[in-house]
Amino acid sequence: MSNDSKGKLIVIEGIDGTGKSTQARMLAEQLRSQGLQVKQSFEPTNGPWGSKLRASATSGRLSIEEELELFLKDRRQHVDELIQPTISSGGIVILDRYYFSTMAYQGARGIDPLEIRQANESFAPQPDLLLILDLPVDLALERVGVRDGQANEFEQRDSLQFCRDLFLSLQDEPFAKLVDASRDIDEVHRQIMENVTV
Ligand SMILES: Nc1ncnc2c1ncn2[C@@H]1O[C@H](COP(=O)(O)OP(=O)(O)O)[C@@H](O)[C@H]1O
Ligand SMILES: Cc1cn([C@H]2C[C@H](O)[C@@H](COP(=O)(O)OP(=O)(O)O)O2)c(=O)[nH]c1=O
């Protein structure tokens, strides 16, 4: 589904620990300082389906079928209630994770990423800009480890490698930009701003 609304959808993707939340916050602040209407959001959301998914990350992983169904339900609600209304009214949405994470993380569990993409794009608008924050898995785990004390079910090394490779496979998409997330926070922000023409 192409995004032909007046506003802009900016998506930040990358494995856990690449700095998505940090950069999403800095980008939103920068664009708001330029007088733009910006909504920052993330997936899984804090809605009913997203909350169930978050709980499962530590209480015990759901079956791949249940997990995929919940991510699709969470995203449909997110598109209907926040994403589409905001960009249709000319606003900017900055997302910390979107359906590319589903392609990566549920792809790592054996579902065909292309099928996941097609299922999502039947209702979810493609982004105007996809920022892929790239970082070696070991470096990312070091950052997450420091923050969470231990990696959760989603953050096992081999599946993170699959996810990193999946994200990298998207860099040739017309809307994608690869960002070296190993640089310091301000340098990563500078790289991102180079790609965000308002
Ligand atoms: N460029 C960076 N260099 C070093 N540490 C970073 C950088 N960006 C973020 N961090 C730190 O790494 C951890 C994960 O950052 P976060 O933005 O939550 O990543 P994500 O949302 O991708 O999981 C946090 O402790 C954060 O302060
Ligand atoms: C959006 C999305 C996230 N996830 C996973 C990635 C995260 O490890 C986990 C929880 O997301 P999140 O709370 O955003 O973790 P983090 O802040 O570390 O990014 O959900 C999927 O498996 N599929 C998806 O479609």
CATH topology: Rossmann fold
Counting DSSP E segments of at least 2 residues, the number of strands comes to 5
Q: What form results from the Cα inertia axes?
A: globular
Q: What is the radius of gyration computed over CA atoms, rounded to a whole number of angstroms? A: 16 Å
Strand count, sense and closure of the main sheet?
5 strands, parallel
**Strand percent estimate:** 5-15%
| Major sheet: arrangement of strands | 2-3-1-4-5
- Provide the CATH top-level class: Alpha Beta
Catalytic activity: dTMP + ATP = dTDP + ADP
Enzyme class: transferase
Family: Belongs to the thymidylate kinase family.
Keywords: ATP-binding, Kinase, Nucleotide biosynthesis, Nucleotide-binding, Transferase
Task: Outline the secondary-structure elements.
Layout: E1 8-13, H1 20-33, E2 38-42, H2 48-59, H3 64-88, E3 92-96, H4 99-105, H5 113-121, E4 129-134, H6 137-148, H7 157-168, E5 176-180, H8 185-195
Parallel strand pairs: 1-3, 1-4, 2-3, 4-5
Helix pairs in contact: 1-8, 2-3, 4-5, 4-7
Bound molecules: adenosine-5'-diphosphate and thymidine-5'-diphosphate.
Residues 16, 42-44, 57, 71, 97, 101-102, 105-106, 154-155 line the site of thymidine-5'-diphosphate (TYD).
Catalytic activity: dTMP + ATP = dTDP + ADP
Binding site for ATP: 14-21
Keywords: ATP-binding, Kinase, Nucleotide biosynthesis, Nucleotide-binding, Transferase
